[in-house]
Amino acid sequence: MAYTFQVTIDCADPHSLADWWAEALGWEVEPSDEGFIRGLIAAGHADEDDTTTHRGTLVWKTGAVIRHPEGLERAPRLLFQLVPEPKAVKNRVHLDVRTGPDDPDEVVERLISKGAKRLHDGRQGPHSWTTLTDPEGNELCVSA
């Protein structure tokens, strides 16, 4: 049996990092259902402390999700999950962003202008990539 999955990224500011990655990938942040959240609070299943406001919208404090604009059939969701501890070591898993017809150097420069940091450039045979970190230090690679 084949399973589906989502990729979860631990972070200190889930909503801002989800915004960054959505812009970086051309994906969409899943909208918050404020009525659903308020209903759970009213029914005693959640507390106001479980929520925050992001860009004027009531959201769950502990996470934010982005998805490919063509839906889950195209790619799994990315969940950005609040954790109390800061990132301390190199990621054991990272995303490789393939730019398709877009110039990878231009994508790298765009991401750097939005808060990414360049770690190094790599090459193996005819393949090359740039390793960056997102604004919270999570590694990613960009290649054609």
Structure description:
The chain is of the alpha+beta class and 144 residues long. The chain is built from three helices and ten strands; from the N terminus they run βαβαβββββαβββ. The protein has helices spanning 14-25, 34-42, 104-113, and strands spanning 7-11, 28-29, 51-54, 57-60, 63-67, 78-82, 95-98, 117-124, 127-133, 139-143. The strands form three sheets. It has a four-stranded mixed beta sheet, covered by helices on one side. A four-stranded mixed beta sheet has the order 7-10-9-8, with helices on one face.
SS-based class: alpha+beta
* Overall geometric form: elongated
Q: In percent terms, what proportion of residues is strand? A: 25-35%
Q: What is the strand arrangement across the widest sheet? A: 1-6-5-2
Helix/strand order, N-terminal first: EHEHEEEEEHEEE
Distance between the termini: 32 Å
Task: Describe the secondary structure blueprint for this structure.
Elements: E1 7-11, H1 14-25, E2 28-29, H2 34-42, E3 51-54, E4 57-60, E5 63-67, E6 78-82, E7 95-98, H3 104-113, E8 117-124, E9 127-133, E10 139-143
Short description:
The protein has 144 residues and is an alpha+beta fold. Helix content is 22%, strand content 34%.
